[in-house]
Amino acid sequence: MKYDDNNIFARILRGDLPCQKISENEYYLAFHDLYPRAPVHVLIIPKGPYGDAFDFHNQATPDEIVGLYKGVNSVIENLETSEGYRLISNTGHHGGQEVPHYHIHLLAGQKLNKHSIA
Ligand code: DGP
User: Fold this and answer.
1) Full-model pTM
2) pLDDT (average), residues 85-90
3) Domains present along the chain, CATH in parentheses
4) Which of 4, 35, 90, 104 to mutate to test the pocket of ligand 1 (most atoms within 8 A of CB)?
């Protein structure tokens, strides 16, 4: 996938658009979803220019991959996820991806419908 530098998450990473930040490191940024579908609805994104899960897994460095997934764990540890959570990554047209920058949804805080998608 050719990366679009002007997608919303690229603009958030550049500081051109605001976000409700939760945490970050050199490799990831975690922030609240603007349209939450659960009491906890967080997006965790890599800082590098990766359009989807495949591009990230295929092209990111080991440090970037570890850095992103440490970010997922940081969110799990620091928000209300003691009763469980769901991780989702919508990819491409059939997957329902709207923003073409790889992101992981973390949903928690209530019993989630088996078929609910973020
Ligand atoms: P997806 O449909 O999987 O590509 O998820 C994109 C998510 O991004 C969706 O849940 C809504 C969220 N979103 C869209 N625009 C913004 C924004 O400007 N700020 C934040 N924080 N979230 C946004």
Assistant:
1) 0.96
2) 96
3) 8-108 (3.30.428.10)
4) 35
